[in-house]
Amino acid sequence: MAEERNQADDGGGVATTDGSLSVTDNRTGETYEIEVNDGTVRAMDFRQMKVSEDDFGLMTYDPAFTNTASCRSAITYIDGGAGVLEHRGYSIEQLCEGSSFLEVAYLLVHGELPEQGALDYWTYAITHHTYVHENIKNLMEGFRYDAHPMAMLLSTVGALSSFYPSAKNLDDETERYMAVVRLIAKMPTLAAFAYRHNLGLPYVYPDNDLSYPGNFLSMLYKMTEFKYEPDPRLERALDVLWILHADHEQNCSTAAVRAVGSSQVDPYSALAGGIAALYGPLHGGANEAVLRMLDRIGTVENIPDFLQGVKDRKEKLMGFGHRVYKNYDPRARIIKRHVDEVLEATGSDNPKLEIATELEKRALDDEYFTERKLYPNVDFYSGLIYEAMSIPTDMFTVMFAIPRTAGWLAQWLEMLDDEETKIARPRQIYTGDREQDYVPMDRR
Ligand code: CMC
User: Fold this and answer.
1) Which of 29-33, 79-83, 170-174, 434-438 is predicted least confidently?
2) What is the pTM of this model?
3) Which domain covers residue 13, as residue numbers?
4) Is residue 70 a part of any domain in this protein?
């Protein structure tokens, strides 16, 4: 039981012990039987506990959902204590070894690995929906030259809602499917346009001959050459990074997509909500913050002072710690293996890698971090790979949003099909004044 409970604490573990709780309300002396299913009690079962007829009933309080399951999901399994991540039951290690990002996107969305014909069809559909309406391009041009690419991405994904008004027909299977294909297909195009906009370069249109990551590299880097030929090592590294970021169960942005989507708004608007959540430095913005932190540390010699600053709570060790992983984030382990490969492919020698490696080593040798189970997360090394690919720091979170689109969509579809779904509407504990008399301005 303890082990099962621990798994659930660490996020995603399925505890199978069913049973019940006998709960005595000491305010009234009443005892209630509360069902336990999947290691979980239903918050609504507590509402019956009242001190009087007109009492609202007992609520549960969990401001950051640290111990509250908001849905049932069959997409991603995490055992944070053991450092395990699986999509539809397949381990992240095996998927990174043998699969491609588009196949993993299919797996997340459809629930099973595709046969060759299904994968070909899926790849064809996504490849042939990568273009965006020219007016989206014009919209992009309206941004300041230095607009943050995440702000541009979030606005243009929201704007797509107006280009596909029929996407709000949520009961129409074809509409749902087309929205899924369009969003996965167009996200790299919007991301690359944002990048080119910042540089004042003309936008590069998608090339249907290239792979999903190869096409993205072409839209970023193509200059005067007739045809851009991506380096297969970079294409593969990007594909692996995107597999690693494809889904991560009920994180902040996915919870946002589900909450916004539960209002039955169209998927473009729901995903814009997810992008906004991902933009924050505690979520997708962390890889950007890691690089800025490594820049600030500057040299290996400064690491002890920096770590002291973290312990004195003047600093945060960005790229460390995770709400569900209380062990090494399995994604960080895989990324770390690809850093050297990418540096070799790009011929760059990044001094920040030395600082990052030493910082990790010292933090993992330090009781302050081990006691709190703070280990590197996915963002600790991903920024170094992006930097080696000459992707500017501002683009890092965008690089996260592209693959996470597949996860958001899989979760959005699952939410729509779940018969327990209702509009998300948390309760509050009201702490303000009541029944005040309005005071006119001249008497305040
Ligand atoms: N540096 C220093 N101390 C930390 C850090 C950190 N990065 N993360 C947590 N702690 C400490 C925290 O101060 C607390 O200490 P104490 O118990 O003495 O008060 C303890 O560890 C527990 O932390 P918490 O704030 O209760 O943990 P949380 O689950 O609320 O926060 C987190 C998780 C990811 C927001 C946090 O670890 C953090 O801010 N990390 C840095 C930002 C980062 O790398 N984010 C990327 C997450 S991975 C990408 C994704 O999946 O979104």
Assistant:
1) 79-83
2) 0.90
3) 7-61
4) no
Does residue 49 sit in the same domain as residue 96? no
How far out from the chain centre does Cα 76 lie?
A: 12
In this structure, the residue with its CA closest to atom 9 of ligand 1 is: 321
**CATH code of 245's domain:** 1.10.580.10
**One domain for residues 57 and 108:** no
Which structure tokens are listed for 77? 């399994």
**Is 133 among the catalytic positions?**
no
Is 249 in the same domain as 291? yes
pLDDT, mean of residues 218-244 = 95
In sequence order, the β-bridge partners of residue 20 are: 35
Q: Which amino acid is at 174?
A: T
How many CB atoms are closer than 10 A to CB 260? 21
Average pLDDT over residues 193-198: 97
Q: Which atom of ligand 1 is nearest to the CA of 283?
A: 52
Q: In this structure, what token pair is assigned to residue 197?
A: 């906009």
Q: Are residues 55 and 104 in the same domain?
A: no
Q: What's the CA-to-centroid distance between 293 and ligand 1, angstroms?
A: 15
Residue bearing the CA closest to ligand 1, atom 49? 283
Cα atoms found within 13 Å of the Cα of residue 99, Cβ hemisphere only? 26
Ligand 1-lining residues (CB < 6 angstroms): 248, 251, 282-283, 286, 310, 316-323, 372, 374, 377-379
Could you read off the pLDDT of 206-227 as tens digits, one per residue?
Answer: 999 999 999 999 999 999 999 9
Spatial distance between the Cα atoms of 81 and 124, rounded to a whole number of angstroms:
39
Q: How far is the CA of 321 from the centre of ligand 1 (A)?
A: 5
Domains: count for the chain:
2
Is 365 an annotated catalytic residue?
no
Q: State which of 320, 369, 373 you would mutate to test the pocket of ligand 1, scoring each by most atoms of that ligand within 8 A of its C-beta.
A: 320
